[in-house]
Every structure is written in C-alpha cells, then in structure tokens.
Amino acid sequence: MIEKSIKRSLNDSIPEDIKLLGNDDIIQYLFDNNKLLTTDNAELAQSDDLKNILAYFQDGSIVISQTHRFDGRVLSFQALVDRKRLKVKEPYYGDLGLIANIYKHDDSSKEIFNKKGDKFDNKMQRDLVDIVSRAANSRVSDIHVIVAEQTSIYFRADGDMKLILQYDNLWGESFLRSVFASADLSDSNYAQNDFQSAQKLGSTPLRGSKDLFLPKNISALRLQFNPIAFGSKYLVMRLLYLEKQTVVKDLSSLGFSQYEENIFKRMRRYPHGLCIVGGPTGSGKSNTLRQNMIMMLQEADYTINLITIEDPVETLIAGSRQLPVTNAMDEKEKDEHFTKALASSLRSDPDSIMVGEIRTMAAANLSIQGALSGHNVWTTIHANSAIGILSRMLDMGVQDFKLQDESLIRALMSQRLYKRLCQHCKKPLAKLVESEEYKRLVKVLGTHAVEQIFLQGEGCSQCGFKGTQGRIAVIEMITPNAEFLTLVGQNKFAEATSLWVNKLGGRTIKEASISIMLQGIVGINEIERWCGLLDEDIIL
Asked: Do residues 120 and 41 lie in contact, with contact meaning Cβ atoms separated by under 8 Å?
C-alpha cells in the first residue's frame, strides 16, 4: 500500500513511482483527498458508455483506456474540459479493468463521500440563501445564474440586469445542482442537459435541511433550468414576494391618473363580465390586479365572496378565498391543476373571481364560462396591447363569437412599467441639440415640447447613483362597445383601434407614455425602449 506522505504530482495524473505499483495502489492514490467528477450526479457526470473508458478527477487527473486513447468520445470529453478551462494533467493510459474498479471504488465509498458532500451541499444551500437575501433586500425581480467558463450571477431590478457576483465553473455546477435539490416541487432527478422547471416555497426549509429558510419576505422562487450552447447552463430564479396587505385608498401609488382611477372604479362595480390586464413579463399586471381586488373588497365592505386562483399565492388578500396551485411537477400538470382549481371555484358560490393568469384554452374558456354565468372575473394574459388580448385569445382557440359579446368582454387593458427619472440628476434634452434624439423629436413634437423632455442622468447620492428612482405604471384601457367588438370579430383590428381612439376617447400606451414623458417623470430612452421610436407612426 502507498504511504499518505507521497506528494501529489503537479503535471502527471499518476507519478512514475505509483505506476510501478498495482491497480489498487493507483486507485488509492487517485482518491486521496480527491473527487471523481465523471461519476453519477457529479459536476461532469457522463454516460455509462464514456465511464467504461475514462475517469476524470477534481485535481485534473485523468485515466483513459489504452485501447481508446483516440476514440471520438474521449476526444469530445477532452474538448469539453478545454472549453470549461478545467485543469488536465498528463493522462494515464490504463486497462479497462482499472477504470471499472475506479468507479466501483467510488460506489463503495459513497456513504463516506456523501457525508462530505452533505457539508458541501449545505454550503451551497447557505450560498443560495445569502444570494436570495441580498436580492430580496434590493427588491430584485429575477436572479440569473449563467454557468460557462466561469459562473456569473446577475440581478434584475427595475427592469435592468446587473452583474453582481462571479465564481468559478465548478462552483456554478454545484450551485445549480444544490438549488434543484433544494426545491419543493421538481422532477425527480436533475438533468443538466434538459429544460426543467421547479419551485421552492418560502414557508418550508430547503429540502434536506432543517434550519435553512428563504428570507421571510419571499413567498416562493420559480426556478427555470436551461441548457445553453457549448455545454453551458442557465438558471433563472423569479422572486415572488410575500407582501403584507395594507388599506388601499386609490391606485395613485402605482402611477395611475384620476381618469384611469375612475375607469377602474366603474369596472369593479360590474356585476358580471371579463376584465383582462395584458402585458409582457414584469409589467406589473399581477400587482394591478391584486390592488383592484383589495379595493373591490373594501368598497363592498367585505360582503362579497372573492375567490382567487394563483400560482403561487403571493400576497394575502384579506377577506378573499385564495386557492394556491403549487403541487404540480411540470408545466402540463400545473395547467391541469390550474384548470381544476378554476372549475372548482365556479362551484364555490363566488361573486367575483380572480384568475392569476390565462395560459391555456381551457383556462380561457372557464374564465369566459364564469363571466357568462353571472360573475365578475378578473385575470391577466401575456399580450402586447389591449386589443392584442383578443388576438391572443383567438390564437388560443376561443370561439370568435364569444369575443363579440359586449356584456362578456367588459374591459381590456395593457400595462408597462417605466423607470422614474431621478428628479435631482436628470438631464434636459434641450441642452443636447446635436443629439440624435433631439433632432428626431423636434420634428415630431416641436421645440416647446422638447424643452420638457429629459434623459436619465449619471446618478447622484439621492438615487444611489442609478439615475432612476423606482418605477411607474402606464396603462391603456378599452371599455369596448358592440361596434368595436364586431370589427375585431371581422379581423379589422386597425379599424377597431381607430374607432376606440377617435370615437370612444381611448388613449394608447404610446400616447399615455408621451404624456408622462412631457411631465419629466420618465426619460425618452425608457419610452422608446418599450414603445418604439416616437417619430414612427405606430399605435401600440
């Protein structure tokens, strides 16, 4: 047997004096304070096919079958290691029996190794809690973890992504496995080359731990694991915050005008019908929905039965019955559970129903069924514009005649969230007469209007040197009549939009955005980021 005092070689997988000994001594040397990375559930887990001819260790040692040294599978693995910029020592070419015994030794020592692994996983779990806590303190909406040649962690706050942390590749591989293993709802096994979704609830400890919890203000983490090109991996964690309910007096805190407040108030008094808020991911539509539900209950003095179907429940809405959709293992099962919960709500004597999001034709049809059966139904959908909501529902397979009933389709809304300019360091566009923005907007809006337009500043102590302070919601709202819906049913969307703007007093997202831009609240670049160039004749 070899002595523990033998020094590890810096360049050779197996030193010359160890090569003279038997396979048992070679295996003991390889595993001494070392870890096999190509075994199952390890950082570079490989197929059984490759494990028959190759073994790679954490210190860079690699053992390759003598008869397979030029095998395409071996060359592909070496290329993978090169891309990841991992250390590789001079290979040791041995027989197939040696490689088989390496993996047998690894299996036989699993119990001991797992004890070490538990400590490592526990550290990864603590890293997860620390990173999520740091993000939650800054009200981050998403955490992006990209594992390539190195691991990069980005936070998305107020719509922008910012690089926050960097680690090596192996840390990232271990972190992703640990996050997956910590989830409450996930597939049974982590498949690093597959698309997988999972969810971690804030109410339970991280799986495998008794005392590690997410921050108290986090309701849940939505996890999406993606393989990307060249062996890299990509995890997105959506932070769902658990907010304490407060009395809501109006919607001005979201940025809505009195005109929009009045329309919302009218909608809340509808005895039945469908009110839909559209917008892209991160546009604040769910928050607008919840705030309206709280106000609806307050205005009714909590005498109505409001049932919500949410995935998951993010905010307590006192006085409502909130049905969570959380016990699903994949998207298909989640959609089935969501549809089941919605069908159940219709049999639970509701006055009003809030559906977190319409994602399937079944959910769309059940929402319509609820509205047709005498209930006030509120929901959200991913759509680019208010009128685009109807296009989206048609694409889902909803029958067009249902979308032409003005007693059913009561309100269509589309929302965006814009970053508010810091009022202390914003820059007037009028001082940048040579800029491309100034020249374009003078032609469209005139000199007087341009004097009221600002750009994001460099940042100051008042805004934390970001140039912006929080966000504001901007919305377009359609309360359609029969003529409008008939035009939509005939696929005459341009004519329907013209009717809404010119005869029904409607205001598009673009017009609403220009209004707050001219008040100096939002910068020109932020508006054009979401609405397109303002000198283009586009109605969104």
From this structure: no
- Tell whether the model's pLDDT for residue 537 goes beyond 80: no
Which homologous superfamily does the CATH classification assign to the domain defined by 252-417+473-506?
P-loop containing nucleotide triphosphate hydrolases (3.40.50.300)
Every domain of the chain and the residues it spans: 16-108, 114-241, 252-417+473-506, 423-466+508-540
The pLDDT tens digits of the residues spanning 9-50 come to 567 889 888 888 888 889 888 988 788 999 877 778 888 889
CA–CA dist 162, 71 (Å, integer):
43
pLDDT in tens, 378-401: 999 999 999 999 999 999 999 989
Could you tell me the two tokens for 320? 């409502």
Q: Strand, coil or helix: what is 239?
A: strand
- Domain boundaries 114-241, CATH class: alpha beta
Count of all residues that appear for the chain in the document? 540
114-241 against 252-417+473-506: fold identical: no
The whole model's pTM is what?
Answer: 0.67
HSE (CB half, 13 Å, CA atoms) of 411?
A: 24
361-372 and 331-346 helices, crossing angle to 10°: 10
Report d(CA 521, CA 420) in Å as an integer: 6
Omega before 15 cis (within 30°)?
A: no
DSSP-derived secondary structure for 286-324: HHHHHHHHHHHHHHTTT-S-EEEEESS--B--TTEEEEE
From CA 283, how far away is CA 271, in angstroms rounded? 27
Average pLDDT rounded to a whole number, residues 214-228 = 90
Closest CA to 436 of 419, 449, 455: 455
Q: Assign 197 to helix, strand or coil.
A: strand
Provide the residue type at 433 as one letter: V
Question: Is residue 312 reached through a cis peptide bond, with omega within 30 degrees of 0 on the bond before it?
Answer: yes
Question: How far is 60 from 37, CA to CA, in rounded Å?
Answer: 10
